[in-house]
Structures are given as structure tokens and as C-alpha cells.
Amino acid sequence: MLPVNEFLGTHRYELRGVIGRGGMGVVYKAYDRERDTFVALKTIREIDPSSLYHFKNEFRSLAELVHPNLLPLYELVSDGEHWFFTMELAEDAVDFYTHVRAIKSADAIATEEFDGKLSVESSDPTRRQDNATSPDVTHRMNMTSAASEDTQEGHDDTQSGHENDSDDTFNCDAPVETPAPRLAPLSADVYDRLRASMRQLVDGVCALHDAGKLHRDLKPANVFVRSTGRVVLLDFGLVAELANEPSPESNEPSSLKAAHESSAPSHQSISGRITGTAKYMAPEQAAAGRLTTSTDWYAVGVMLFQAITGQLPFDGPRNAVLRDKQTRDAPAPSEIMQGVPEDLDSLCVDLLQRDPKNRPSGIEIAARLAPENPPTAVAAEISGPIELPFVGRADHLNGLDDAFKRTQQGSTTVVRVHGRSGAGKSALVQHFLERIQLAPDTVVLAGRCYEQESVPYKAVDSLVDALARYLMQLPEEEVVTWLPESIAALARIFPVLQRVDAVARADTRTAEIPDLRELRRRAFGALGQLLREIGQRCDLVLSIDDLQWGDVDSANLLAELLQPVDAPKMLVVLSYRSEYIVSSPCLIALDEQANPMMQQSVMPVEELTATETRSLAEELLRDASPTMRASIDWIVEESHGSPLFVYELVTYVSAGGDLGSDASELNLDDVLWDRIKGLPEPSRKLLEVISVAGQPTPICDAHRAAGSDLPLIKALRDLRGGRLIRSTGPRLIDQVETFHDRIRESVVLHLPSLERKNCHASLAESLRQSDNADTETIAVHLHKSDQYEEAAKFYAAAADESARALAFDRAANLYRLSLTTHAPKGETACALYTKYGDTLANAGRPHPSASQYLIAAELTDGLPRIDLERKAAYQLCAGGHLDEGREVLDRVLKRVGMQLPNSQKKALSLLLWRRLKLRLRGTRFDAESAITAAQRAKINVTWSASAGMGTKNIVVSPAFQTLNLLLSLKSGDQFSIARALCWEATYTAHDGIGAMRYSRKLIDEAAEIAAQLELPYINAMVELAEGACGFLTGRWRTGSTRCDRAISILKDRCTGTSWEIGQAATYMLWCMSWEGRFGEMSERSSEILEDVLDRGDLTTAANLHSYMTPLSHLTDGDVGAARESLAESLSKWSRKEYNIQNMTALMGGASVHLYAGEYDSAHARMVNEWGELKRSLILQAQICSVVLPELRVRSALGSYVHLRQDPSLLQDAKKYLRKMERKHIPYSVAMAAPLRASVSYIDGDRSRALSQLREGIELLERQDMNLFAAASRFRYGQLLGPGNGEAHQAEAIEWMNSVGIRDPLAMITAYTPAFPKI
Predict the structure, then answer these.
(1) Where do the annotations place ATP binding (predicted)?
(2) Pairing status of strand 231-233 against strand 223-225
């Protein structure tokens, strides 16, 4: 046993006096500063396992029960040293006996007033005795609990060494000699008080029994009566659970045994010890036997006997009392007292029967006390918060069990449970989770989302809360080993994770990444990795309820987690309402992103069957009167299988609801509203506010909105007891919501419009006074109360918050609401439309983003307008809307005195002229000169023109790039100069290896500036320029490595660089394809494609879709998928001019045709588009002048050898082969070698073909063109023939397998088609 220091109160609770003392604790009068009210506060004096168990049991036994005759308990608290709970303060109360007998001494002082802080002496029980307070009063105010049977110390009345204790006796309990004459009769007033108090006492005990509990220590000291006459039971330290125990001889299933009379609910002491107060306990309790509800009724009989006679039926030494109860019948009150009413006398005799079976039930006792007002047993049972019985759904549970087993075997499985509101889907999932969460090594993380909850990622927010709670329970040293590198990024999105010590101490650098999209990607990845760590060690189950209220950002996160390649081993249970499948943005987005490779099942939850519905109704009405049970058929018919409807109809019937002739017209809203109308006005008002709130709301905010003078505690208990609300706890900061959405909907439906608006207005005002209120929630309530201007301001503020939290879709929607709720004007409107555009751009929606920029541009003028139109042009071009982009870009250029060239020849002339000016001028600049706003505008416009047309028009883009460099050099702005130098070097490298010396010079100059500026963006541009030049000059390894570095810098340390990332990714993947790193290229291509689509970069997406993706599908041997990718690649692309995307689609299409053996189609496509290639000047780029002829030669030779030996085909092949060879470029010469060998083989010169193949292999390997080399090696071995060639062929096949090529022979045929069929 551990003594504790004196309890002096807490910051919240200020002690104001002592109400009562006992051996185990002290009850204080305390002021609750948070709720501005007085409460009774009970502490535990000494902490040991037994006393602490009793103390907590005393609170938990009643904390959730609601009944006017049970003392309301509020909150259980432990501060690490002290334990206490708070309850209703009843300063005007006296014990049962004192009230009935109207003893005047009941007015004795019951509270000691403090003069300052408590001292050790003031809490000393011996000092309490010394004060002028009678032993009678001391006993009456003792609210401490006794010990239970499972402790080393029993109740003081049942253990030796306590013979002199008086805690369980009144002065009137002292041994008396029965006088020969009977005592004088009591007055009629006493009997009136006795009947009224007894009826309430019986109601309270019935409520306790209906909740499945026995009190086991009923006596006058534990039953108080307030000045209003209200009786309340208290001191629940010995409360025990009643259980349905089967009879020993029964062989029926346990589900049926509970129905037998022989298996009525009972309780058996584990240790067999005697508990309770000896003089009030029943004979079976005194014998440590099995206890039933009759045990408590015996104690009630003793109290009735004592109230009438002033004596106890059995008195004397403890052991004698216990023995007499086993061997003697109790006397009748009439034997001692004259004038005892016959009904009370007989009731007392029946209650004191030794055989518990002969004692009356609670319903019978209540009926005998007040025949004119018969009790309703069901009302007491259903009024408590007892969980709705779960019936049926066997097939659903089996399906969930099967899914869980697949998870245990290592799979990731998704089960989507849906049904209409009230169908029982939530109960089904909860029942399943309760079954599995007790299994070894099982971790269940459950969450829920709410219709109007205003947090980013609201569908998974509470799930992450559960994850944080789980991690907080584990040793920190274990959690540390699980944390992913980017945990800080995840904690930035979900700050609750910082409650986990290991997370709070983690490296925060990833949370500081400025590119918001990259930060979000890292955060998503970190969550997936963390769940994978848990899933590897445990059977992990995630559950999200009411997913229909989720947002698109949540859907994106869930879709990312459920990618089959990297998905954690877990079972994911998603439940939602069926009626929202086609309208919920979250569900729609989740369906659109669903991966067909993921194991997923859909589980509709339909209505209960008639049999299941009847079982539920019968269970709820099992103790009801025959009249009520007669309504079961009607309930089954009218509920239509809805569990919630069954419950509400049962409640309606139990409360005496009139079915009448219109019962067939009743619906759930009518039944709910009928019950709600009967609430006390303050309780109904609070429910209206909670319903209109539409989401979990802090109790203090709901209270303030409903009216601060509203009796909060009583209203909350009314609503909780009626299953109308639920909350996360008893504190004012805890959140409250309606118990079910249909309750909320019913209340809102029946509220007049004006009252709804008033509730919204009150909530808005209340939340604005709160420090932690959600901005969007305030905006919604302002909006719905017609305060449009204020609502618009809060929507905008909420949008800003969501944008900072990287929830871009949500932010965009909020900006839209702000703009449409109240039309802003002037600069405010311009700023909002600009933010709206920025957010849409970040959300990867370039076309809508451009629209908002253009609207904002119309609201301003001068340089700001130019900049907004520039942004719009860039977004349109990046999004693939080239024609619209060109129109806007042309308009912007004209504003700064420029224009787009109207033809490729004009563009080429401009390019050559500007490059000549640059060469003559040089790259010198004055870093000290100040850049003007006009100069800045022109630099930005020309940069956007170059970037917007980049990778689309091979001449227009470099023309503007050179102009951008000239303008930058003139301004002296080093940032703009360094950026322009890098891109000038890249575009110059298109001219080929001969131009590389000048490109090298430009890159070196940019690197010097980068070293001075120390800006990550410029460093990335230098890396990108190195990588792009590597690709353009045939240095594939250098190109891929440097571009990869650029991507890392741009994602990790920069923001707003979608275009630059797309450029770097494109060059990198092209390099990897020429190197033959097909497996790695396929993986990276898929990852990059997803990223650029997410960013809205349709330009890069088109590049990848038209060549890299088809090539990846060919690597997997899937020709059909490659064709589909090509068909989609240019479906939304401009057709007005031939550009880079058309070229990549040509290359991708020809490659697919060659792989499929469709050589004629490949060649025809090359020939048909060759004129467009020439007119677009694409063939002016050196690398294009090599790779495109190479494809043309391959297709012509394949068609000639395998389809038709048309001399024109061979002539065409030889023509373009000579063009390749005349380039004298290392990679061109290397690629030409196996083609020349093919011509030699066609000409019948096998020896020459072998020599050329051998030379080609060497040249190709020197250029890191490994796929071309492997294909050539296989053909070399093929021509060598058996005995010498097998090793070469095996080596080629082995290499292709190593890089992930599924069908090496098909790939060899595609790259070297002019040799014999394999």
C-alpha cells in the first residue's frame, strides 16, 4: 500500500471544503473553473491494486448510465500521483433513513469551510472527530467505497479486527431489546415519504440491474434524498457485472442457454469471499454464494424494515447476524410497530425471504408500491447507453475473416463495405474489428471522417491520430528503427505525429523542402514505409468509416498507399454510404485511381432479413410486456430491415408511442423527431446546435452557441442517455456529435429555416471566440447564416491554410467558395484569383489555373497584368493547350514590344540573327547595375515564351531563349544570366558535337555564377545543362547521371519547377533508353509519368506516353499496351503544327510496328511524316538527324527482307544509311555498323557482314549503346553458326534478361530485322 501526499486540488479544480471522510478516501466540495460550477470530488487516500481497482470500478460502473435515480458521475482523473473523480454535488441531500424519518439533526453541518489552502491536519480523520460534528453526520456523509472480494481486505463489516467500526451503522442501528408492547405507529407523512422514496429507490435499482450490474452494498448511507425529494443511489465500489451463466445440465449452445430461467443473470465471487455490509446483505451474499438481482432486493427489504421500525431485522455481533440470516426468517415490521400498512408489511416480508427465488422482481415491487402507475421495464433498459445487439451478417463476417486471413498470409487486401444509412455497416465493421483486435500480434488503426470536418486529408486524419497513439505506446528505441527518412515531411502534414518522441527528435530537413508537391510526395512515401514496417511485424488492419465525406487529397493519399508494388501488408476496410458512390469526390477519385492489380472486394450491406430483423427486435424487447411484444410483427414490417429503424421503433413503442391507423406512414425521421420533441427545452436546444454543427464540435463551443446559461451537465446526460449524441470525453474541450447522421438529419430537417440560420450564426460567433476553431468551419456557419462578406474572408483564410498544408484541391475549392460567396473587388479580387490560379497550378490543373490568371489579369494593369498573362500562357502550353497558349503568349509579347514568329523560317532567321548578336556581344555583364521593373518583365516574358514552347518547337523556343540571354546580360541580373547561359548551352548543343566547345564555355560561366550565388536552382540548372548536352552529344551515361542529380536538387530544394523537372526527366530517360537500361528505365518512367501528370505537365507526359511508355511495354512483351499508350499520347494535343511530340509519337509507333513485325507499316509511317519532319526543322538537330534515319533504315530493310523484295525499299535504306555514315559522329557511325552489315548480308556477303557486325559491337559498346550491341552480338553468333556462335547468342540473351527484357528474341528482331528469322 502506497500512501499519497495530501491532495490540494488542481489547476482546474479548486477545493472549497470537505463533504465526507472515510478509511479509503475523502469527498470534497470543489469548484470546476473550466465549467464554472461546483462538483463533488472524491479522492482515494492510499493507492494499492485492490483499492485502486475499487475506486476505478466505482466510477466506471455508473459513468455511462443515465437515470434520475443514479448519481451522475463526470470524470475520472489521475495526475500520476492522485486519483479522483467528480460527480454531482448534492449539498442539500440527506441519507434515506434520515429523510424518511425527518430527523432534525440532518441539518447538522456537512461541509467544512476552508480558510485558505488545505493542510495535513485539516484532512486528518481524527481531527474530524474532534470537531463538533456528530458521529451520525460523519457517517451520513461518508461516500467512500468498500473493498471487493478480490482483495486482501474485505469490507470492514465482514472482517475480524473491525468489531468496533461504526461505518455501516446508524445510531438507530445499535442493539435494542424488543419491547413487550409494540411501538407507537408512525405518522401518515412518514409513510407518504417512504412510499415515494421507495418507488424511486426501486427505479434506480432496476436501472442498475437493466444495465447488467449488481450494487451489492445497498444501505441507507448509500442512498441519498435531495431537498426536491429526488432519490439517488451512490457508492458503487462493490458493483459487479451480471452474467448469463448456463445451467450445468444444459447442453444447448451458449446463445440459447441465456434464455433459460435457470440461467438468469447472476454473479459469482471469484475468491468466494463475503462482501458488503453484513446487516444489510442477503443470506446468499452472507454465504458467499451466487448472487442475482434478488440479492439487492433483500437489502432494499432491510432498508424498508428499518425505515418502518427504526430497527434492523437482524442485529447483534457480526458473526451472529451472518449465522441468523441462514437459519431464521426475518420478523414482519408489524410484529414490532403498530399501524403498519398491510401492503408495506407484506412487501417487506416478501423482500426478506431467505430463498432468493421467493423474492419479488423489480417490476413487481414497483407495481406494489404504486399500483396506479405500473412500471415499464424496457424504458429503464433502453435509456442506458447499451450497445445495439449485433445479429446476422454471417456471410459478411466470413468475407471479412477471409480477407484478414489473406493479409496474414502476406497480401495487401482492400474491402469496401457500403450500404445505406442505418443499414448497419458501421456496426458490422466494428463487430469485426472487436473480434480480431484481441488476436496476438494484431494492430487495428481505425478512423472516421465527417461531412463538414475541416481538416486536410480528413479521411485519414483520425487514422493518423490512431497511428500516433499506437506509436506512443511502444518503446522509443523500437520506434526509432521503424521511422522512414522522410518522417518529418509526414509530421509536417500531420502534426499529431510530433507527439511521438522519436518523431519529434527526427531529422527535420525533409520538412523544409520548398517544393510543396515534392514535400507531399515524400510525406506519402513516409506513411507507406512506416505502415510497411508495422505490417512486417504485425497483422495490420486499417479501417476508415464514412469515407463518403472524404476529400480528393485523402483519395490521392489512399491510392498512393495502395499501389500494388509498394503497398504495406495490411487489410484496409473502407466503409461508406451507397447513396454517395456516384457523387462523393473522394469515392470517385479513389475509383479513378484504383489499381486493378490490387486485391479488392466490394461488400454491399443490405437490409437485415426478416428473420434477422425479428431476432433484433425480440432481443431488444425480451423483457417487455406482452402488449409491447405484440408490436414485433409491425416493427419487422415497418423497419424494412434497418437496424437503426428497429431500435428507434422499439424505443417509440416502449415509450408508449401511438401506432394509430397511420402507422404505415411512419418513417425514421418521424420516429426520431417524436422522441426529440419530448426532450427538455435546454437539452433539445443543445441537440439542435450539435446537429446544425454537422461535425464533432468542442463541448464548450456548442454550449456557448446554445446559450451559456443552459444547464450543460444535465443536457449532456439527457442526450447521451437517449443515444442522441456521443462525445470523446467529459471535458469542455472534448468533442461532441450526434450519435448517428440520421439523428442530425432529422433535427435539421424539422428545424425552421430561421432557427437553422440562428444556430449557424450562434456557432459562428462561438467558434470565433475559440482559440482553436477551424477557419473553414467558421466560414461555413457564416455562409449558412447569410453573412456572406464575412464568410468569404474566412473561406479565403481557410484556403491559405490548406495551401500551406499542401492540400491543393481543397485549397482550390475554398478559394472558389470565397470568390462565389461574396464577389470581391479591386486588388482584393485580383489577389484571390491569383492565389486560386497558383493553387490550381500546384494541384496539376494547368488549364483552370490559366483561366484564373487571366481573370486576375483583367482586374489589374501594367506590369502585374503582363506577369499574370505570362503565367497563364505558360500553364496553357505546359498543359498541352498549345493553340490557346500561343494566343495568350502572343498577346503578352506584344505588350512588351515583341511577337511570335509566324513561320518556322521566320523563327530560324530570328534565331540566327540573335545568336550572331550574342557571339559579337559576348557574355560580359555588369553585376552592379540595377535591374528595372520593365527589364524584369521582358526577361520573365521571354523566359516563359522559351519554356512554354520548349520541347514543342525546336526553333521558336531557342530563338526566345537567346533573346532572354541577351536581355539578362544587359540587365546584369546574375540569376537570370546563369539560368539563360545554361539553356543557351543546351539549345546550342542541338547543333551537335561541333558546337559542344561553345556549350562548354557557357556552362562553365554559369557554374561560376552559381558558385557565387549559392542558389540550389542555379546549381540544378548547371546539372541539367550538363545532362542535356550529354544526351545531345551521345554521352548517355553522363547525361542520365547529371539529369538525375538535377531532379534531386529541384525536388528537394526548389519549388515551382515542374517544367525544369520535366525537361530533366525527359533527357534522363532518353539516355537510359539508348544505354539499354530498359528495366530501370521502365520503372523510372512509370514513376516520373505519375509525377508529371500530378503536376499537370502534359507536355512531358505526352513525350513519355508516346515513346518511353510504349518502349516500357515492349520490354514487358505487351504490344497491346504499347499500342494503347500511343493511341492516347496525342489525343489531346495540338494538330495545327508538327512538333516534338509528333516526332516522339512517330518514333514510338515505328518501334511498336518493328517489334510486332509490321515492317511495311513502320516504313510507311516514316515516309509519310518525313516531309513534316523537314518542314518543322526537327531534322536540323544533330541527334534527330541520326536516330530518325536509323529507324527509317531499319523499317525499310525489315520490309524488304520479310515482306516484299521491292528494290525501292533497299534503295531507300541505302540512301539514309549513307546520310548516317557521313555524319562522322561516334554514335551515328556505331548505329550504322549493324545496318551496313544487314545490307551486306542481303547482298550475299556473309563474311563482310560478320566483319561489320564485329566492328559494330565494339563501337556500340564503346558508346554505351548496349541494347544495339547485344542485338548485334546475337546476329553475329547466328551468322557464325553452330559450334562457334552459340556462346555469343547466349551472352546476348543473358544480358537482355538482366535488364528486364521479357522477350529477348522479339527485341533482337526489332533492332536487327534484316537477318534470318529466329
Answers:
(1) 42
(2) antiparallel
Instruction: Return the H-helix or E-strand segment holding 673.
Output: helix 668-677
DSSP code of residue 512: G
Residue finishing a domain among 102, 137, 156: 156
Cα–Cα distance measured from residue 700 to residue 994, given in angstroms and rounded to the nearest whole number: 76
pLDDT of residue 162: 35
* Residue 410 shares a structural domain with residue 554: yes
pLDDT at 1188: 96
pLDDT exceeds 50 at position 461 = yes
* Number of residues that this document lists for the chain: 1318
- Calpha distance 556→457 (Å, rounded): 9
Instruction: Tell me how far apart the alpha carbons of residues 1270 and 1295 are, in angstroms, rounded to a whole number.
Output: 7
CB contact at 8 A, 732 and 794: no
- Binding residue per annotation — 42? yes
CB distance 573 to 607 below 8 Å: no
Residue 1085 maps to a domain: no
The tens digit of pLDDT for each residue in 184-193 reads 888 888 998 9
Q: Return d(Cα 612, Cα 607) in angstroms, integer.
A: 9
Q: Is 737 helix (H, G, I), strand (E, B) or coil?
A: strand
Helical spans, DSSP H, in 562-620: 585-593, 610-620
Q: Is the pLDDT of residue 984 over 90?
A: yes
Q: Can you state the angle between helices 775-784 and 753-768, rounded to 10 degrees?
A: 150
Q: 374 and 241, same structural domain? A: yes
Q: How far apart are CA 781 and CA 692, in angstroms?
A: 9
Q: What is the pLDDT of residues 1301-1310, one digit of tens each?
A: 999 999 999 9
Residue 445 and residue 594 in one domain = yes
Percent of the chain scoring above 90 in pLDDT:
47
Query: Do 677 and 622 sit in the same domain of this protein?
Result: yes
Question: What does the pLDDT read at residue 583?
Answer: 78
550 and 696 assigned to the same domain: no
Long-range contacts of 812-819 (CB under 8 A, 24+ apart): 812/836, 812/839, 812/840, 812/843, 812/845, 814/776, 814/779, 815/839, 817/779, 817/783, 817/792, 818/779, 818/792, 818/793, 819/792
* Domain final residue, candidates 717, 746, 775: 775
Question: Does pLDDT of 1289 surpass 80?
Answer: yes
> Is pLDDT at 58 greater than 50 in this prediction?
yes
Dihedral over Cα of 583, 585, 586, 592: its sign: positive
Q: Are residues 621 and 570 in the same domain?
A: no
pLDDT band at 265 (very low <50, low <70, confident <90, very high): low
Q: Are residues 505 and 547 in the same domain?
A: yes
Nearest residue to 1151 (alpha-carbon basis) of 1114, 1100, 1101:
1114
Average pLDDT, the chain: 83
Q: What's 116's DSSP letter? A: S
Note whether 366 and 438 are same-domain residues.
no
Q: In sequence order, what are the residues at sequence separation of 6 or more whose Cβ sits closer than 8 angstroms to the Cβ of residue 88?
A: 39, 40, 71, 72, 73, 74, 232, 713
**Ramachandran angles phi, psi of 1233, nearest 5°:** -60, -50
pLDDT at 57: 62
Contact 1069, 1081 (CB under 8 A): yes
Q: Is residue 1281 classed exposed, middle or buried when 0-12, 13-18 and 19+ CB atoms within 10 A define those classes?
A: exposed
CATH for 302: 1.10.510.10
What are the tens digits of pLDDT across the range 851-899?
999 999 999 999 999 999 999 998 888 777 888 888 999 999 999 999 8
CB 864 within 8 A of CB 838: no
Residue 1125: CB partners within 8 Å, gap ≥ 6? 1105, 1106, 1109, 1110, 1113, 1148
Give whole-number Cα distances, 114 to 84, 814, 1311, in Å: 20, 55, 97
311 CB-side CA count, 13 A = 20
pTM of the model: 0.63
Nearest Cα residue to 402 out of 431, 434, 436: 436
- As given in the structure block, the three cell numbers for residue 982 are 545554361
